[in-house]
Design a protein that fits this description.
Chain B: It comes from Carassius auratus (Goldfish). The structure holds 2 protein chains of 2 kinds. Chain A is an alpha+beta fold. Chain A contains 4 helices and 4 strands; from the N terminus they run ααααββββ. Chain B has a domain of 100 residues: 2-Layer Sandwich (Ribosomal protein S3 C-terminal domain). The chains are: A alpha+beta, B alpha+beta. Chains A and B meet through helix 4, strand 1, strand 2 and strand 4 of A and helix 4, strand 1, strand 2 and strand 4 of B. Strand 1 of chain A pairs antiparallel with strand 2 of chain B.
Chain lengths: 128, 230
């Protein structure tokens, strides 16, 4: 009995001290892009701009993106920013600057549009 | 590949040949000849051996050494004995040479940082949302007062604002905090726009602030998140 419990604790310790591979600790842009695009399409795929629904759409996009990102299971803190803009001919610029560790942290921006809506989602991932 | 010495110069070969011909069998350890299977020479055999003595040929696997006693008689073509020992790295002065004779670069010295055993920020060193908000608002107001929207210049203006805000925050930033700053600048038309953000962070140590500026032709939204780096 004692041997098996000792073995159990040893196994658990090995799991704790496992050093994650490079894939698990760096920000991978591709899979995040697919995840976010799915979230946006499922929420406002075919809708036109409606002022009353905007609140709901925003919450839904941001929450679903964040939950999908969490499901990836990587040791990252995430910031998801979403901008929804009505197509009116007006111009828009976004810029970001970050103070972080270039080797482990990253960001990606996804632009999506349909006939009446522009949607810009930015995801920042910072390694713990 | 690893152990190939330089081929012997003609001079040293000639020297060796002379020494072989003049002093047969006098030194203590017996010397081997290329291709020969005889081991020792006695003084009686001198007359017989001399005509058989051939000048040495250069071989690719020759290893010069000062002693030949370790050579086995069955090794027929690999070793001859020489008076001088060559060293492989001798001609590269000061540099480090690998075993194969190629140059080694100076290794990049990694910086090893010790564990601080700190799991959270110090009591007075949290990301201050109110102070950051004041800085943000002041920067936006001072920079965008009286500026008109123009499509060419506003993209640069936007990036410059983001960098400016970051540089101002770096001075105020507590240690071990990462900062993400985002600026949105748009033309003030009659369109509706909404900016939202949500983040996965530790509410005890991390925070965010935002500031808005608007005039007759443009609007600007600045978002700053401060995240503790564990």
């Amino acid at each position: 009995m004692k041997n098996s419990t000792l073995q159990n604790t040893l196994d658990k310790t090995e799991q704790w001290t496992r050093i994650p591979s490079a894939e698990e600790t760096t920000f991978v842009v591709d899979e995040i892009t697919t995840v976010i695009k799915e979230a946006v399409e499922s929420t406002i795929g075919n809708s036109s701009y409606q002022h009353s629904q905007i609140n709901q759409w925003m919450s839904s996009i941001v929450e679903s993106s964040l939950s999908q990102l969490t499901k990836l299971g990587k040791p990252f803190k995430y910031i998801v920013t979403c901008i929804i803009l009505q197509k009116n001919g007006a111009g828009l610029h976004t810029a970001s600057s970050c103070f972080w560790d270039n080797s482990t942290d990253g960001s990606c921006t996804i632009r999506w549009e349909n006939k009446t809506i522009y949607c810009i989602v930015s995801v920042f991932g910072l390694a713990i | 590949m690893a152990n190939q010495p330089l081929p012997l110069s003609q001079e040293t070969l000639a020297q060796f040949n002379r020494s072989m011909s003049t002093e047969p069998g006098t030194s203590g350890p017996p010397r081997r000849r290329l291709g020969s299977i005889s081991t020792r020479r006695s003084s009686k055999d001198q007359s017989k051996d001399q005509p058989h003595h051939r000048p040495l040929f250069l071989r690719s696997m020759t290893i010069p050494s000062s002693e030949s006693s370790f050579l086995s008689p069955t090794v027929s073509n690999s070793h001859i004995s020489m008076g001088k020992r060559f060293s492989f790295a001798g001609w590269h002065q000061g540099g480090r040479v690998s075993f194969s004779g190629l140059y080694l670069q100076q290794p990049i010295q990694e910086v090893y940082v010790e564990n601080t055993y700190r799991t959270g920020p110090e009591p007075g060193c949290h990301f201050s949302a109110s102070r950051t908000q004041q800085i943000l608002q002041a920067t936006l107001d001072s920079y965008l007062k009286g500026v008109c929207y123009s499509p060419d210049s506003c993209s640069q203006l936007c990036q410059m604002l983001a960098d400016l805000v970051l540089s101002k925050l770096k001075d105020v930033n507590p240690p071990r905090y990462k900062v993400v700053c985002q600026v949105v600048v748009g033309q003030s038309g009659k369109q509706g726009i909404r900016v939202a953000s949500r983040s996965l962070m530790n509410p005890n140590t991390d925070n965010y602030t935002s500031a808005v500026f608007q005039n007759h032709s443009l609007f600007a939204v600045a978002l700053v998140h401060g995240l503790y780096f564990e």
